[in-house]
């Protein structure tokens, strides 16, 4: 299994809703990442988890709350989002054997905030 | 901070060769990636360079010069399916781990 999966594929939510994005990998990778990508822009790093602990938070607003319940799962909890948060949210994972450098991306969740 | 520059768009003909340049200025350099991303899809890994020189993988090659802060991705025998964005990404060493920072991406359009 060399795949990173993400659910849902598409999500529409209002500004008062609470929703969660899910990411899963079974490659034994111990580093997992959340990225945000706006149209025609490169992915921007949001969070990095290493061995289930948050290691990097790129000054992301608190309305985005990451969670890593175990080494295979990564969640992103969303609350009180703004329309400008509409984007493609990408999850990635990497192994530690090469220093955790090569990241494998999931297909993403396309989020629309109304 | 870091600065990663690559051209916004390139157009080439099927069967031709295209070279996408990437220049970077960063501290704590720990390698450079090239990713391919088709519209609406996730980035897929193409190549990784950490030492100077050329890495060849089929129709794709990637080159790195650390002293010049320069890399290129060479696409040979272009096919229509190669129309995509190509992202240059630099790995920086941070105390908390490795951080991957992307350039703006180069949209390549392959014409018949």
Description:
The complex is a heterodimer of chains A (114) and B (112). Chain A is built from no helices and 11 strands. Chain A is an all-beta fold. In chain A, strands 2, 4, 5, 6, 9, 10 and 11 form a 7-stranded mixed sheet that branches. In chain A, strands 1-3-8-7 form a 4-stranded antiparallel sheet, with no helix packed on it. Chain B is mainly β and 112 residues long. Chain B is built from no helices and 11 strands. In chain B, the strands form 2 sheets. In chain B, strands 2, 4, 5, 9, 10 and 11 form a 6-stranded mixed sheet that branches. A 5-stranded antiparallel sheet of chain B has the order 1-3-8-7-6, with no helix packed on it. The model of chain B has no long low-confidence stretch (mean pLDDT 91). Classes of the chains: A mainly beta (114), B mainly beta (112). Chains A and B meet through strand 5 and strand 10 of A and strand 4, strand 5, strand 9 and strand 10 of B.
How are the secondary structure elements laid out?
The complex is a heterodimer of chains A (114) and B (112).
Chain A: E1 4-7, E2 10-13, E3 18-25, E4 31-37, E5 44-50, E6 53-57, E7 64-70, E8 73-79, E9 87-94, E10 103-105, E11 109-113
Parallel strand pairs in A: 2-11
Antiparallel strand pairs in A: 1-3, 3-8, 4-5, 4-9, 5-6, 7-8, 9-10, 9-11
Chain B: E1 3-5, E2 9-13, E3 18-25, E4 29-37, E5 44-49, E6 53-57, E7 60-65, E8 70-75, E9 84-94, E10 97-102, E11 106-111
Parallel strand pairs in B: 2-11
Antiparallel strand pairs in B: 1-3, 3-8, 4-5, 4-9, 6-7, 7-8, 9-10, 9-11
Summarize the structure.
In chain A, 0% of the residues lie in helices and 57% in strands. Chain A has 114 residues and is mostly beta strands.
Q: Describe the sheet with the most strands of chain B.
A: 6 strands, mixed
Largest sheet of chain A: 7 strands, mixed
Question: Could you give the count of β-strands of chain B?
Answer: 11
The global form of chain A is: globular
What's the total count of β strands of chain A?
11
Distance N to C terminus of chain B: 41 Å
Average pLDDT level of chain A: 91
Proportion of residues in helical segments of chain A: under 10%
Question: What is the N-to-C succession of helices and strands of chain B?
Answer: EEEEEEEEEEE
Low-confidence stretches of chain A: none
Radius of gyration of chain A (Å): 13 Å
What is the percentage of strand-forming residues of chain B? Answer: over 45%
> Number of helical segments of chain A?
0
Rg of chain B, Cα atoms, Å: 14 Å
């Amino acid at each position: 299994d060399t795949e990173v999966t993400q659910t849902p594929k598409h999500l529409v939510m209002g500004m008062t809703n609470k929703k969660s994005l899910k990411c899963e990998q079974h490659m034994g990778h111990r580093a997992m990442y959340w990225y945000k990508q706006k149209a025609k822009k490169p992915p921007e790093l949001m969070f990095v988890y290493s061995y289930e602990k948050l290691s990097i938070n790129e000054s992301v607003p608190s309305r985005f709350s990451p969670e890593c319940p175990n080494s295979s799962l990564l969640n992103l909890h969303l609350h009180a989002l703004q329309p400008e948060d509409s984007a493609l949210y990408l999850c990635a994972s990497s192994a530690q054997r090469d220093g955790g450098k090569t990241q494998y991306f999931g297909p993403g969740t396309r989020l629309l905030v109304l | 901070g870091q600065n990663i520059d690559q051209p916004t768009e390139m157009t080439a003909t099927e069967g031709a060769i295209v070279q996408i340049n990437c220049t970077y200025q960063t501290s704590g350099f720990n390698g450079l990636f090239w990713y391919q991303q088709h519209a609406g899809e996730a980035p897929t890994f193409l190549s990784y360079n950490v030492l100077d020189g050329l890495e060849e993988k089929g129709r794709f090659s990637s080159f790195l010069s650390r002293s010049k802060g320069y890399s290129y991705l060479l696409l040979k025998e272009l096919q229509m399916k190669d129309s995509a964005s190509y992202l240059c990404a630099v790995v920086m060493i941070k105390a908390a781990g490795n951080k991957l920072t992307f350039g703006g991406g180069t949209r390549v359009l392959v014409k018949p």
